[in-house]
Structures are given as C-alpha cells and as structure tokens.
Write a structure and sequence with these properties.
The complex is a heterodimer. By secondary structure, chain A is an alpha+beta fold. In chain A, 26% of the residues lie in helices and 35% in strands. In chain B, strand 2 (53-61) and strand 3 form a beta hairpin. Classes of the chains: A alpha+beta, B alpha+beta.
Amino acid sequence: MDPLVRPLRLLPAAAICGLLVIVVATLSSQPAPASSLTLLSRDGRKTLPIAIVGDQEFVALDDLATTFQLAVREESLGAMTVSYKGRTIVLTADQSLASVSGRLISLPAPPSRSGRRWLVPVEFISRALAPIYDVRLDFRKPSHLLVIGDLRVPRVTVRYDPLGATARLTIDATPRAASTVSQENDALTIKFDVEALDVASPPLAPQAPQSLVQSVRLADPTTLVVQIGPRFAGFKASSEPVDTTTRLVIDLTSTQTETAPPPAQVPPELPPALAPAPSAVRTIAVDPGHGGDDEGVNGAGGAKEKDLALAVARRVKSVIEARLGVRVLLTRDDDRNVPIDERTAIANNNKADLFVSLHANASLRKTAAGAAIFVAAFEKSAAQGASTTGGRVPTFGGGSREIDLVLWDLAQTQHVEQSAAFAGILEQQLRDRIPLVAQPVDRAPLRVLESANMPAVLLEMGYLTNVGQEKLLTSDPFQNMIVQALFDAVIRFRDTVTGGGTP
Amino acid sequence: MTRRALVVAALVGVAAALVWALFVAVPRRASRAGSNTVAAAAPGAAPTTSGRKIKARLFYVSGDGMHLVRVERDVAYGEGTLEQAREILAAQVTPVAEPLVSAIPAGATVRALFLTEGGEAYVDFSRDITTGHTGGTSDELLTIYTIVNALTENLPAVTAVQVLVDGKEVDTLAGHIDLRNPIARNPAWVQ
C-alpha cells in the first residue's frame, strides 16, 4: 500500500482532508441501520442509497455502473452481464450464484428488480466487483463503508476498564496504525497517522460523571479526543503490535490514591502495559469428518463429504498457520477412517485450544440449503454419571485429598459456554460470506464434540444433497470463504479470551 | 454291562432334566420375575385386540428438511405400554407416500423392543437404519428424534429411548449423534 500512498501524499493535502472531514462526520452521525453506503476514495466521498428487501441490503446496479464505469447489459432469460475492462460478471434474475470471470461466487440473495432498476445484494461489491476491479475495494459491511484504493482507514475499537483508583483505555487499530497521544487541559488527544478512521459512533458509551474517562469522541477524521474527569492525575501510553492490529494502551491514574502521585506513575497492581498479550489460542485441532470407507454424505453430482471436509481442512491449516502463526493439527491428513475417540484424543493430547469438526450436511428434502454450527448438548442420562466423578482419593502417606475428575466422555461439559461463544463469533463471520440456515447455531448430542477438552464446534458447511449447494461447496471461492471466516473467527475469539472475558 | 447301561441311563436322565430346566423352567420363572423389571417383545409376537385403534402422533420430515412435523394417525391398539409402543413403532417405520417423507431409512425394521421400569425404551433396529442412511447431522438428528419423539410423546411412561442396531449398542448411526445413552424427548426439532 505504501508505494502508492507516498506519491499521492504530494497531492493537495488540504483538499483531501477537507473531503475526509465530511466523510467521517457523515459516518459518525449515521444511525445503525444505515440507509446509504459511504464510498471513500482519494477523490472524496460519495454515498449510494441502500434498499432493504427482506432483511437483506441491496444497492442499485446502475448506481454501481455509474460509479465504477461498468457496462450493464440485460440478456434474454433474465440474465445480466456486467463488464469492466473486458472482464465479465454474469448474474441471473432468480439465482444467488454469479459467475465472475468464469468463477462461481455466491451472493446472500438473488438480484431483485425494483421497477426498471436491478438491485444486487451489497455483498456483490466485495464478492463480484472487487475481484475484477483495477483498484482495491475494501467493503466494511458493519460500518457501511467502502474504501476504494489504498487509503489507510483502520477499524478502531475503544475499550474502557475502570479499575478503582486507576483505569485503562485499550484502543485497537486494524490494520496497524501509528498514533501519538498528548494532553491538552482536560482532554487527551490521540492522533493517528492515517487518512481516516473507521470507528463506531460514539467510539465509547458515555461514562459516569466521576469516572476518570468521561467520553471518547472523533474530533476530526484522524483524531480521537478523550475527555477526562476531575480526578485525573496522569497517564502513561504505550502501543504494541498484535498480529495485524496496533494496540494502544493508556493507563490513567487518579488523585485519590496518593497525596502527590508522580503524573506518569503506573500503579503496581496493573500488569505492565508493554508485556505482550498472552495468546490463548496457540493450537487448533481441525477435524475433517468421516474418511476411508466412511464416505459421509454423497452428493448427487458425485462429491463426497469426506473429500470436501479434508480439502477445506487443508486450506484452513495452510492459511491459519501461515498468517496467524497458530499451530493447526488435522485429525487426519489423508483418506482414512479415524475412530471418533481418536479424533478428540489428538486434540486433547496436544492440548489444542479449539476444536473444529468440518462436515457437509444431508437432507431428504433436496431443497434444504445453508451452513449450520453445532455445539455439544448432553443427555441427562449421560450427565448424571458426571456428578459422581469428583470425590476424595487417598494420598500417599495417609490422608486424602479432594479431586476433580472429569470423565473423558464428558470433557466438553466444562467448555460448553466457550464453545457457544465461538459458535456465535463464527456465525457472524460466515453470515456475510455464505448461505446459512434460518437458525445457524444449535445444540445436539454430537459424539465427536463430547470428549473434546476445549471449546469445540461442528460446522456443517452446507447440504451436499442439494444440487446447487453441491456445486457451491466444491468451488474454490466458497471454500476460501469458509477459510476466511474461520480465520477471522479465531482472531476474534482469541481477543475475547485474552481480553479477560467479555469483549 | 448292566452297570454301564445304568450309568448311561442315569446320564441321559440328568441331561434331560438339565435341558428341561434350562429351556422350560428357568425362562418361565425368569419371565415371571422379569416382568417387574424388563419387558421384552419381538414384533409379531403377541396379537393385538382386533380392530381397536388409538390416535397417535407420528413424525415426518418438514418441508424445509430441517425439522419434524407431527402427523396424527390411527394406530392399532396395544394392551399395555410395551405392546402399544410396538404398534406405534410399526406404524412409524411403515413407508409413506409423498408429500410425507420419513426420516427412517427404507427397509429398516424393528427387531426387538425392551422397556425398563425407569421408563427407558430400547429399540433394536435392523442394520438398514445405518446402511440406508443419507448421513449428515441434520438427517441423523431427525431419524433419532422421529423414534424418540414417537415413543415419548405418545406414551407418558416412556421418558427416554436408546436405539440399538442388530442387537448391539452403537456409537452413532452415521457418525454424528451419540447413541451410547438413552435420549430424552426434544421438541426443539419439531416444527
């Protein structure tokens, strides 16, 4: 991104800044269910209206055509071709699948007609347009923001933890961005070295009047202002990179603890701000379902669940290991039948921090479609045994001590909450990328999850018994979507674990 | 020679007594004693009271393929919980025509049915329930809860059901749902 950014910095900076002020001011004043999409580029800002059909957001195809110089042609039989510099997207009226330069992609809904205009789901931008467009298109669905070109617009989140006489502000910027913190009267100014910030409005919910930090607001496109309370005595700021994020930690002290505290003193009970955050997810076990003579579901077109699960698992391993530095264990890396207990044993013996079993679904109704995530459920009859597992055991040299035994079969009972938390995060990450069933997270007495001694989920990626889904599941773009969703979910899950509980 | 003949006669007598004891007396006593704890029936054994019907709720796959739907049907009356359970299962595994779709694989038959005093039913299916299964977590859930709900919803005395295959306890039907313990009724899978 930098080689492009530097020459462009020579452009009249004032003009750009002026435009960006308007952009972010609009962004920050936008209500949550935005009715427009904000486009942010070096040329300035533009908004496109969003239409909501069902619970899906659509944009007009001709709006996109004007903005991105696309040629749209309506063919017979409800097909449309969208061309850009010799590259073509083919859309079909009642199909949520589209062809992008000959590759199949999936949209959350088919194109929809509104009067004489065609509407396409907003995901069209990231999934169909971005792959063929000359300039990078970075679509941020939650903030209804589309960043065009190599602008540095990090996502910024602010967390505030009051700790009695002290307090801590944690500000994460992703991708990494440098910042400087300075104090001006009763405010701390955090200036980021970027073109704009993608931040919630307000960045932090208003705090109590006696709180050390009272509010955080966006003062200009690249600056956050922290309003501090009357008890404020001093602060210490430090930042460190955490993967693709820069984490800025500001520790604040108050006047109440000591009569004359040195302004920049960090209370001893706080952990050193510069210490690297512990990475609670070091090893992930990925379990490709079935294998060998157990083929799992057989698709109408010949796809086998066992092959699909292994193909996706291998992709997950290569991407997460290379880009996240987390070890990924596969419970099988070839076409063989691994007993269920051995699958969890591999995860348990290697002290994996997360277990993800990959499967493809089947239904007797051939139209059933969508991915689902399962978390373990326990039958009362099985759980009754568990209550008797703890107890006192004799110790060497006389006496006895209390032990907390957990039956192998029920190891998962201790992790169900975390498993459900991960399932929720994964659902969020899958939602914008692939079709999901109506209720994507469910609980069931799944044999492979019950003995897992770590947070564990089973992902049914889609229905192989549905002809359209079978085509989708076996396509590269779909498998990459699953990998990307798992990758993002692991990062977010790790943040909730290392963030000390609730995010 | 006569002594030898006597020994042989005595041995034959003892053997005959043993055979009688093993195959006639003990089972009779066991069945009398066992009727308090475990009741067993093989399909087609005891005849039912002719013509009498009860209304029972049977379960089939919903239109979206992800749930079960209840369908009320006339089912032959059976004397006592065990016999009634047998009739309900027989009706549930009977092949149905579209638009109904059964989550129980075609060809699967009930080999035996046991009922414990604690309200747990053990249903032994022929292996077709495994070999004929489509696989997938959803379909497996629907197969299991078709059986569990058909018994537990219609028979208050039945609280949980364990599925056996070919007379043996199994881990799963198609690799997903844990069948090592009796499974209680779960209306969550019914629309």
